[in-house]
Each structure stands twice: as C-alpha cells, then as structure tokens.
Amino acid sequence: MNKAPAPASASVDDDRVLRLERHFKAPPAVLFAAYSSPAHLMRWYGPGDYPLTFCEMDFRSGGRFSFAMTGPDGVQMPPFGGRYLEVTPPRTIVWTVDTFEDNDGPPIFEVTVRFHDNGDGTTRLEMVTVFDSAARKLDQTSRGFADGVSAAFDTLDVILPSLIAVVRGTP
Length: 171
Hints:
The chain is an alpha+beta fold. The chain contains four helices and nine strands. The protein has one domain: Alpha-D-Glucose-1,6-Bisphosphate, Chain A, domain 4 (2-Layer Sandwich). It has helices spanning 28-34, 38-44, 134-142, 145-168; strands at 9-12, 17-24, 52-57, 64-69, 80-88, 92-97, 99-100, 109-117, 123-131. Strands 1, 2, 3, 4, 5, 6, 7, 8 and 9 form a nine-stranded antiparallel beta sheet that branches. α1 crosses α4 (145-168). It starts with 8 loop residues before the first strand and ends with a helix.
C-alpha cells in the first residue's frame, strides 16, 4: 500500500525566516537535477493548479531566471525572476527573487535549498527562505507560500521515478 507523502514541515526562526523540510525517496543528485533545467522544473514547480508554464534560466552561480505560472483560468500570471547566487552540485542551490511584474528592484527574498544525503538512497531537502522584511514574509505566507511549496513537492514526489530514470540514463 502506498502511503501519501508527508507534507513539508515548516518552522519559523524569526520574523523574516521560514524553513521547510521534506524527505524524498531519491538521492540528492536526482533532486538537484529536478531544479536544474526548464524541462524538469516545468513538470513539478508550482502549487497544484498553478503550474510553471514559462521558464527561462541560466542555471549557474550568477545566472538569472524568469518564471511564470498559469492559473486554473488559463491566464498566465506576471513573471517573476531573480539570480542564482550559488549552484553547488548536488548539494546546494541559493537564489534570490528580485522581481514581480517586471519590477526591477532589490531582492524581496532569498532561498537556500540544501539536499542532505540520508545514506540510504533518500534525501532530506531543507529550504530556508529569508524575506526582506517581516511584512513581506507575512504577506507571502498569508497567500499560501508554504502550502504552495508543499503542493509542488507533492508533484515532485509523483514524478521522481521517471526523473530517477532520466538522471540515471535508463528508459
């Protein structure tokens, strides 16, 4: 019998930091690959009925990205983008989200994702988001930020078997 995946657990360090954690039945290299290309991201990134439908990325330290999701009404949301600050395969990815609705400004939050090898073919994914202000964190969390990430992780969990095959080069 298949068990439903555990939701991402959330904790709050201070008024600007949100930590999410999830365990996956895949090695770190596979989870790292899930973040590494538009083809992979477009299969899972985005909360439930808001899939990622536009994805441009230069996946390297210093590279930029631009993403957009489409709502259940079929209308694409305004794009958001940022910069990759650190890409260290297969352990760490750090990025900023700098823009919403084509507004060039300072980063509004920074995300660090770490892939911790459990030594048994599974990974603990740790996501730490530091918002630019307590008000921004409150705004984003009240809009379902943590629930959206958890829903995206649910989708990632579903596609992991096929992603494992792609990363290993097996059909």
